[in-house]
Amino acid sequence: MSQTLTPENREKLRHVSTATLTTALFKRGLRNTFMQGPRRIDAGGPAMVGEAYTMRYIPAREDLDRLEAFKDPAHPQRKGIESCPPGHVFVIDSRGDPRAASAGSILVARLMRRGAAGIVTDGGFRDTPGIAALGIPAYHARPAAPTNLIRHHAVDLDVPIGCGDVAVYPRDILVGDDEGVVVIPAAIANEVAAEAHEMTAFEDFVMERVQAGQTIVGLYPPTQEKTVQDFEAWRKRNGR
Amino acid sequence: MSQTLTPENREKLRHVSTATLTTALFKRGLRNTFMQGPRRIDAGGPAMVGEAYTMRYIPAREDLDRLEAFKDPAHPQRKGIESCPPGHVFVIDSRGDPRAASAGSILVARLMRRGAAGIVTDGGFRDTPGIAALGIPAYHARPAAPTNLIRHHAVDLDVPIGCGDVAVYPRDILVGDDEGVVVIPAAIANEVAAEAHEMTAFEDFVMERVQAGQTIVGLYPPTQEKTVQDFEAWRKRNGR
Amino acid sequence: MSQTLTPENREKLRHVSTATLTTALFKRGLRNTFMQGPRRIDAGGPAMVGEAYTMRYIPAREDLDRLEAFKDPAHPQRKGIESCPPGHVFVIDSRGDPRAASAGSILVARLMRRGAAGIVTDGGFRDTPGIAALGIPAYHARPAAPTNLIRHHAVDLDVPIGCGDVAVYPRDILVGDDEGVVVIPAAIANEVAAEAHEMTAFEDFVMERVQAGQTIVGLYPPTQEKTVQDFEAWRKRNGR
Amino acid sequence: MSQTLTPENREKLRHVSTATLTTALFKRGLRNTFMQGPRRIDAGGPAMVGEAYTMRYIPAREDLDRLEAFKDPAHPQRKGIESCPPGHVFVIDSRGDPRAASAGSILVARLMRRGAAGIVTDGGFRDTPGIAALGIPAYHARPAAPTNLIRHHAVDLDVPIGCGDVAVYPRDILVGDDEGVVVIPAAIANEVAAEAHEMTAFEDFVMERVQAGQTIVGLYPPTQEKTVQDFEAWRKRNGR
Amino acid sequence: MSQTLTPENREKLRHVSTATLTTALFKRGLRNTFMQGPRRIDAGGPAMVGEAYTMRYIPAREDLDRLEAFKDPAHPQRKGIESCPPGHVFVIDSRGDPRAASAGSILVARLMRRGAAGIVTDGGFRDTPGIAALGIPAYHARPAAPTNLIRHHAVDLDVPIGCGDVAVYPRDILVGDDEGVVVIPAAIANEVAAEAHEMTAFEDFVMERVQAGQTIVGLYPPTQEKTVQDFEAWRKRNGR
Amino acid sequence: MSQTLTPENREKLRHVSTATLTTALFKRGLRNTFMQGPRRIDAGGPAMVGEAYTMRYIPAREDLDRLEAFKDPAHPQRKGIESCPPGHVFVIDSRGDPRAASAGSILVARLMRRGAAGIVTDGGFRDTPGIAALGIPAYHARPAAPTNLIRHHAVDLDVPIGCGDVAVYPRDILVGDDEGVVVIPAAIANEVAAEAHEMTAFEDFVMERVQAGQTIVGLYPPTQEKTVQDFEAWRKRNGR
Predict the structure, then answer these.
(1) In a domain, E133, yes or no
(2) Residue contact E39–C146, C-beta within 8 A
(3) Which of F36, F210, F216 sits opposite D78 (nearest CB)?
(4) Reported ipTM
């Protein structure tokens, strides 16, 4: 059952790491939530948070996948770029194949202009220097100069897909940082956001103590009562 | 534009090799028609010829892909087995992942009983000794004992897919021999069948000559006029 | 907590498939129990059932791994072959590297003579035609003629290892058939054997019905009451 | 039939992207022109443009590939560095193997001093921090500290090779940017350079419009007459 | 320095295993002599022994690699088949790529008719059922139905190549059994053949003892004086 | 036989490259000393030099590898972090699997605070932006957000392991620069450090000459007597 992510939790997700999120999901029995392969083109940019809007590629066939195909406004790649709702992340199933591009800088610029929150493929993008300059979170496996037609045929929009060996259902919440992309099932996105926010406070507290020279024994995880008390005091002191 | 494969051409396809077919397709500009990976479980069996009926898997998610899922008669894997038309080949997009099964011997037996022409996955099957004994053409990458739920979630039936890095559209013609599986676009299946049939006659003639000690120069390809004449004579003599 | 596998359950494990066992383990939350890669050299032989006795390889180093190393009776590979208890399976962590042999026919023959139940590596064996002729279950990734010294250095006996991307603890129960090898944690081997034995009876019943033309809907899984009744009658009739 | 690249077209190639070039080549039926794997060490540097001068490696053999081999001035790696013509790109077929170096900073510095336009391997380089500091375009798969002798044996100079799964014939034109390297057959390099130059003007125009908020429908590709007119006006305005 | 393999040693090589040969070569410091990947199509056939005659493929290019190319009698693949000397092994560097065929049954039949000792590729063959029926040793990675033109361009004959990640120089001696193919440098082929013949006698003796129940300690390797004496007696008794 | 690395040689190792070290090791017959895969997170930082302190992972098992496992202070990962001696490098055998983390920023911070010289895995780290900011040399294959429990089970401390396909024995000397990590056997670390120091002086001299326009013939390697003399003069002039 899907839920709407609250603005408060959307904001919280901007300030937690994908590492923390995968642990919150692991607690709920979900082990396969981090995309294997996709990495960020514009390292160091702001976090990516948004609902999944998907596109599916199958292998290209020479008689169908010619340059003329793009003249059709119903071509799924072009239509998808013009249909992805604001705040959503455009997620592409490229079968993990970066030998041809999933998209290039012009389409990504248009997507950004239309308000998308990011773009993700388990293949590769072309014009990556241009994409890096745009300022929209973009994740891929590696640069891929050749046009998508050489390997990929866009066939579906907004259907369940696999990306980076993880299941992505439309409206799942995608969060990306400099490590990569995690997929949160829509139905638990609010609770996971809240829990990860709490976990992050504890992790910040622990890191401060470790930097100050404290052992991790009893601290991480907090098996000593004193750790729990110290953390409570720290939260008050730091307004966390 | 799709066409119906004539019974005559269907029969011809049973007697040509996938190697010959890929050359006939290459003449038409189609270079990527042979599935990479899938190999035959029941080596030595009769050729597989039939229309594609497809199923698509995405990665599994632990909360959705539990054993209980199979109790739903609308589960695409179960529904697909009961819906694949007679004479068709059940083709499965498993994202090339053989770490869990695409199907097992009970479903394959049911599929066979319902008249399917074969089953193909770019993942793996379980109960492969049982499948080999059934006598239905079956192609996979390697044995995969774990149930599909561990890695795969069946999501679609009868949509365009990729299998073995080749595009497969519903109703394309699949032909399999001991080397593997070739995909023929529906619209050209009749002409390709007819041409491959002719090519096979010539290849048989050439092989006979080579076995008799003739050089391939001028013979294969037939750049000498004498080769063309000899072949015509051979066809008459052999009723080909 | 470890348990001894009863003779009765050991016998049951000889007559269930690895596919059935992975499902019984999946019901208990264990998803990663089937070795990825190792396949049987002597296809068609009897099932392999036995406790794990392990050996661990690390990469070779030229100054340590010379032919002279084998003269030392404490060399772990040689010592392991002479120490593996009867009824056990010799399992080798070769880091999935088949570029040099994990063992050859002479050592496997000695192991067999000493009463081992089988041998498994996620690398490769040498002298595989000779191993196939011995009649002991043997699983590997592919033939590897070069001596182990070229790539592997035997370092440990009877410690927890990984093999085919699955954890293997000493005394776990390994079961192998023509599909591959499954690892059953020692503590649950008896209950899993018993359950898989029951499941196999049901699967045999289902296969008989499917071969007779029955749909899988309501039958597999048995969502119809009638299936349950038919199965009970079948068991009585067939003494299962 | 080979042609000389005109100075004007050589300059044009410095200002077009590998993405644009692969599309110009795709229009001519060439689908496999972008090297898979090699990426730039000195990201952000100027474009690489030059004729291919090739070297071929085969696997090393311990008795032939000793450090003494380099004392021979006819050793192909050393001879190649001293023979590569100015303005050319030294392209190395390393069989895609980055486990040992294709070359190191001293040889690359010498190559640069002799006027080469760049260096490319589908293996790896050693001394990569030093190479990055030199200021010559250099492409490889990943750093590889070990000397080439450990894995590679230089055998040929200036012969057709494969690099990054693309055919490279001596005198083909190689163009590299921050995405990677494209290979242009010598016979069509002038026409491809001219066409890519034109395409780049249109792409720049499109990007400007997209950034200004225009939809891609009708614009990219230019299916509306107005787009064609707008582009003509833009060219005049911008002197393109 | 090359030597001619004596008829006596050629015969000896027919009766030793690739495993034994890799150890004899390892004693001489050669660690990388067994081809990784190629396996025998016609398992169980006689050993393959012969001098290397090589062919080199680079990646195909669409404008050069058309079906018409085969009409040229100088096409290296066709010319090579007609030039490979009797008793030699035709060895093909396919860059480890089995996505298109290295050769098919007609060419292999011609090669056999001309007296070749075998054919090896690190790619794949097409018409493999036909090749298996011919009775000539043939090694490849896996079946590959598509014509070579789709991926491969034949460029050189009788030059040093890599095959299965091993260096192959023209006139090296190739030996193949059911495990795979080993490459023996021409200059040491006679001494390696003689030594492997001796080693095989000892291994047969050891296997007999192991089958009779003797421990490997002191026996293999023969660290006990008694083993040496027993072996001498065994040789006399068995005429080895 | 192990030796202590002298402070002088430890300092020398901080100023030689991994490339130079692999050549010094190759001279001693050691060909496999550079880790394949691990690359530096904090590129541009100071060299890493230290003794190996190792940890070994095997694949995870769901019933054992739960979050509660970390509460046990004897858990090898937690215990290892608190036990690694100052000046040592924590080296992790993750079986080359970066699908889950080998460690995260809190543990790495604690390790750094305790005086470790660096951390290396052939898997991946989580919290990599945080690790990069710490200032401790850290090498991995790629970012891996999921907690180690999802794929890895820590089982051993301070035993011989493989990492990046190289053998690592406790107390071996690890040296890391921006190219990667080399492993020096403890027994030869002092002599290798001294020799690499000398080699580096010569390489610096050669690079200066090459930058000044000198050919590499006769210079590198120094086959001309004049090169030897020039180098001696250069050393005096530059106090090397």
Answers:
(1) yes
(2) no
(3) F216
(4) 0.96
